[in-house]
Q: What sequence folds into this?
C-alpha cells in the first residue's frame, strides 16, 4: 500500500508539475500568500488526525426508518459494539431521522462506536443506499409489514429481521434472509458476524430474496389482492366498474375477480 501511494503521488506530481511550479512561485513572491505552502501539510495533518474515522473497507450493515424507540436501532448500535469488542470489523449506516436521534448518537458515543456508525439522515436515493450495504437489518419491536425490509430484499441484500409478525411472513429463514429468534443485541451480533464473515456463502440469499419479493409483492399481485378485498367475500360480491378496468393489468385477471 505504501509503494502504491508513493507511485500515485509521483504520477500526480508529474502530471500537475506546471500547477505546482506556479503555486510555489506565487507563495515565494506574493506576500499575501507567503504561507500558502503550509496548506498541503496542514491538510495532511488533519487527515492524519481523522484517520480513525476514515473508511477502511469494513463490511457494513444498515437499517432505515424513523429514529424513535421501538425501531430497534439501539439494538443495532449495541450489536456493532459487541462485534467491535469481539474483534469483528463492521460499520453501521442508518437512513432516517427522528426525535430520538440525539439519544442514539449518545448511545453510540458511550459504547465507543460513534466512529463506526453513520447517521445518514434523510436519503433521497434509497436503492443506492440499500445496494451499498452488505447486510440490511430491521430490528423493530413490532412490525405488521416491513416496507424497508421488502425494499432491501428487492435490491438483493441479505436481510436480518427480528421475529415480528411482518418479518416472519417476509423472511424464509436462511433461504431469503435470516430470521432472529428474539430481540437480544447479542443474537443480532452473532448473526451479523456469521453473515459478514461468509459473504460468498450468503450471496445467493440476496438473489432468493429478490425473487421472493417479485413473486409475493409484485404490483399486479398487490392490485389483485386489493380488488378482492374491496369486492368483499364470495357471498357479497360487487362489480367494480372504474375507468380503465379493461386495461392491463386488470384485463389479465379472471372474469370471476372482476364480477
A:
Amino acid at each position: 500500500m505504501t509503494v502504491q501511494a508513493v507511485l500515485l503521488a509521483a504520477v500526480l506530481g508529474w502530471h500537475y508539475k506546471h500547477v505546482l511550479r506556479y503555486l510555489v512561485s506565487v507563495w515565494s513572491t506574493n506576500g499575501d500568500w507567503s504561507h500558502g505552502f503550509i496548506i498541503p501539510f496542514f491538510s495532511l495533518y488533519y487527515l492524519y488526525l481523522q484517520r480513525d474515522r476514515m473508511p477502511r473497507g469494513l463490511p457494513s450493515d444498515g437499517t432505515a426508518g424513523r429514529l424513535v424507540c421501538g425501531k430497534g436501532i439501539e439494538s443495532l448500535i449495541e450489536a456493532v459494539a459487541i462485534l467491535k469488542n469481539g474483534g469483528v470489523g463492521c460499520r453501521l449506516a442508518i437512513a432516517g431521522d427522528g426525535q430520538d436521534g440525539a439519544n442514539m448518537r449518545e448511545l453510540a458515543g458511550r459504547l465507543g462506536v460513534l466512529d463506526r456508525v453513520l447517521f445518514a439522515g434523510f436519503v433521497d436515493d434509497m436503492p443506492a443506499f440499500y445496494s451499498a450495504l452488505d447486510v440490511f437489518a430491521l430490528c423493530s419491536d413490532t412490525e405488521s409489514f416491513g416496507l424497508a425490509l421488502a425494499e432491501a430484499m428487492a435490491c438483493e441484500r441479505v436481510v436480518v429481521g427480528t421475529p415480528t409478525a411482518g418479518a416472519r411472513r417476509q423472511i424464509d429463514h436462511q433461504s431469503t434472509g435470516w430470521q432472529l429468534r428474539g430481540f437480544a443485541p447479542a443474537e443480532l451480533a452473532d448473526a451479523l458476524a456469521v453473515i459478514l464473515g461468509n459473504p460468498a456463502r450468503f450471496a445467493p440469499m440476496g438473489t432468493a430474496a429478490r425473487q421472493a419479493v417479485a413473486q409475493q409483492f409484485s404490483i399486479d399481485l398487490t392490485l389483485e389482492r386489493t380488488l378482492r378485498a374491496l369486492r368483499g367475500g364470495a357471498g357479497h360480491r360487487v362489480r367494480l366498474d372504474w375507468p380503465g378496468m379493461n386495461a392491463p393489468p386488470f384485463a389479465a385477471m379472471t372474469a370471476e375477480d372482476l364480477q
